[in-house]
Design brief:
about 120 residues; alpha+beta; three-stranded antiparallel β-sheet; 3 strands; about 50% helix; about 15% strand; rod-shaped
Length: about 120
């Protein structure tokens, strides 16, 4: 045993471990601030997609909210409502997929591709 040590006691830590933990916490907080800034930028983005050769146009923002929906008059056929429904669903799904891809790409730049819970 080292000088001044009693059985069962650990040597005093010179603060290196605590400083390391504090530095890690500061890094995580900085990472969270960066993630928040990126998320705010993503929320400002808008994606517009079309279906049916442009007959249906949908705009979705980074909050995954539909902000615009345009329908050509020719696609509004009371005898074929199912086609219009399919076109709207297709355009919305594509817009959502694209905005999700943008969000994932932006966040992976920050995290280096690691999935860090709580950052999004």
């Amino acid at each position: 045993m080292g000088r001044g040590m009693k059985a069962g006691k650990r040597p005093k830590n010179s603060g290196g471990g605590k400083m390391s933990q504090m530095q890690q916490m500061q890094k995580l907080q900085a990472l969270q601030r960066e993630a928040d800034a990126i998320q705010a930028e993503i929320e400002q983005k808008e994606i517009t997609t079309t279906a049916g050769g442009g007959a249906v146009e949908v705009t979705v923002n980074g909050k995954k909210e539909i902000t615009a929906l345009k329908l050509d008059k020719e696609v509004v056929d009371p005898d074929d409502v199912e086609m219009l429904q399919d076109l709207v669903i297709s355009a919305v799904n594509e817009a959502m997929r694209q905005i999700e891809e943008i969000a994932n790409n932006e966040m992976s730049k920050l995290t280096g591709g690691m999935n860090i819970p709580g950052l999004m």
